Amino acid sequence: MDEKLLVGTRIRELRTQRGLSLRALAGLSNLSTNAISLIERGGNSPTVSSLHSLANALAVPVTAFFERQHGGHVVHLKRNARPTSETAGVRMENLGSGLPSQQIEPFLMTIEPGGSSTNSQITHSGEELVYVMQGKLRCLINEQEYLLDKGDSLLFLASQPHIYRNQTTKPAQVLIVFQPMVGQVMAHQHYVE
Predict the structure, then answer these.
(1) CA torsion sign, 67 to 68 to 69 to 73?
(2) Are the beta carbons of 115 and 155 closer than 8 angstroms?
(3) What are the residue ranges in the chain where pLDDT is below 50?
């Protein structure tokens, strides 16, 4: 199944499971009814921000939109089978979701030259780990700037406003691991708008 369609289908399933109309979900997520309808039909790739808004509105982690049903206590994803979301200059690949009571959300984020993780600084519950695998990244966390080279990492409380930018001429590839606070909605939804 096409990844856009998978994400859209999962959003529709979660919406209908909760007895929400498109209009009700639009009100909860601050997205338009038309935008949600397009996403659900696979006609539009949701942005990182939109995914976060929808996940918050549906009270699920962002990874819930990418999940295929896995049984047991192991999730094995082949490189070419990762659920992926792409928006202007950013590609997010889900590195694993579907464990019962899963506590972390691992993603591979590729930010193209001139791109940024989101349109504006975001906040969410929990903690966030950023590890630069390739390229360079400028991270702004609570008005403090951090320049990360390949092999550098940051660990921080995600309740602080933050954004990642690639201001180089080469793509930056970053491992991001979210861990929400106990009982909170998973965090990756803030990046998949």
Answers:
(1) negative
(2) no
(3) 1, 183-189, 192-193
CB count within 10 Å of CB 64 equals 23
183, 61 contact by CB (below 8 A): no
Give the pLDDT confidence score for residue 183 in this predicted structure: 47
Contacts of 178 (CB under 8 A, 6+ apart): 104, 105, 107, 124, 126, 127, 128, 158, 186, 187, 188
Which residues share a beta bridge with 127?
A: 157, 179
Distance CA(153)–CA(146), nearest Å, equals 10
Q: Pick the closest to residue 187 from 67, 60, 101 (CA basis).
A: 60
- Residue 41 domain boundaries: 3-65
Q: Do 58 and 103 share a structural domain? A: no
CATH code of the domain containing 144? 2.60.120.10
